[in-house]
Design brief:
mainly beta, 151 residues, 4-stranded antiparallel beta sheet, Jelly Rolls, 0% helix, single chain, 46% strand
Length: 151
């Protein structure tokens, strides 16, 4: 299958600016497209590990979730953190993934961490603390709005 690549940011809508007050006719309706990138983290990735993707500068993260591809067997206390090379839990502090969990919706590690990732592209890292886990793979999905520049 063919793919199309946009340099972005990608926006959608047919009224670029407001020139009046009639919704659907002359009130701006252009919005940002949510983009996503993902990579996997294994139960034995116990030091900061690149997840294999980079978020563009000035992006706003709107969600991070884990989709478990292989259950984290033999451990009810597995945690996964997501961040950058210099701070592996910059975006998500240690979020619990139980032995039977198939997905986890995450919260920001601190207020403002998802608002704007900064003026440089950021490669995303993950780290797992699995205690006694003998298996486990999670796909980390980062959803973001490109080039919002909200800092």
């Amino acid at each position: 299958m063919a793919t199309t690549t946009f340099t972005g940011p990608v926006k959608s809508g047919n009224i670029l600016s407001s020139t009046g007050t009639t919704v659907g006719t002359n009130v701006k309706n252009v919005g940002d497209i949510v983009l996503a990138q993902s990579g996997t983290i294994n139960y034995d990735d116990t030091s900061a590990t690149s997840l294999g993707f980079t978020i563009p500068a000035n992006s706003q993260i709107v969600g991070i979730e884990y989709h478990v591809e292989t259950l984290f067997a033999s451990s009810s206390t597995t945690t996964i953190a997501v961040g950058i090379s210099t701070d592996a839990d910059n975006y998500v502090a240690a979020s619990n993934v139980t032995a039977t969990a198939t997905s986890v919706d995450c919260e920001p590690a601190a207020a403002g961490r998802w608002t704007d990732i900064g003026s440089s592209d950021q490669t995303v890292y993950g780290i797992a603390v699995t205690n006694s886990a003998t298996a486990g793979v999670a796909r980390v999905v980062v959803n973001y709005l490109q080039a919002r520049d909200l800092s």
